[in-house]
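A brief tutorial aside. Many learners find it easier to grasp structure tokens once they have seen a single protein encoded end to end. The record that follows does exactly this for Fumarylacetoacetate hydrolase. Read the sequence first, then the structure, and try to relate runs of similar tokens to stretches of the chain.
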Amino acid sequence: MRIANLKGRSVLLKAGKALDIERASHGAFAADPLSVYQDWDAFRSWADGADYSAAEPFNEDHLCAPVPNPRQIFAIGLNYKDHADEASLPYPEHLIVFTKFQSSLAGPNVTVDLPSDSVDYETELVVVVGKEGYKVAEEKAWDHVAGLSLGQDYSERVVQRRGPAAQFSLGKSYPNFAPFGPAVVTTDELDDKNSLRISAVLEGPGVEGRWTVQDGNTRDLIFSVPRIVSDLSQVVTLQPGDLIFTGTPAGVGMSHGIFLKSGNVLTSTLEGIGSIRNQFA
């Protein structure tokens, strides 16, 4: 199934139409997009047999962040070997973890106001937690995942890297610096949840035509989704609706010697999930 947020209301998407969850369930599940994850097993049971006859066409520009109010947002740094290679950094032995503050979350197709000329992109698989978990075994980790989505970890590199200690979370949390969507997709919709092509295409000022700046695959994660979920849960209690940005493959702007400019358009795509499109001003 594909769960989305349409103008602040939780919906199921199918064949270009949206089914309002609260109305279709006769109030069994609330309109709040977070609520479906708080009783995930019951919701999944209902949604698997949902009647889509009341679904209606919708405008994709009205899609908001699929989970706009998670309790926790985790982001994993340096989690693809090719990205570590391009940064000339050793592969990490343990998760590198920071956060993106909730106010940076946005829908999939927002316009991003650039606070400086040092803003970079990072295309990422996003994991949405479906069940509370503490000290989760790696072999049980997928049981705690509601679904997968696609996000961008936009980064103001000067703020991120300024000393005396790096400010990753601040540099990555300007408004609309964490767009994601277009939906949360359950893994039964995917041919291989462990191997999804992930890419980004940049257009506009400073670019000739359409430039594929990132093109990777999630099978190349240093820490897999189950490993991330398990390792995080050894310290924190994961909560339903929590988000995990899992890292970016090679091809970020710094590696190309470019930063985002007003008038650029970036289209990010994750196999089986869909695309998000951001313009910059």
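Self-check: Helices lie at 21-24, 35-38, 40-48, 81-86, 157-161, 168-171, 225-233, 253-256. If you spotted this yourself, you are ready for the next section.
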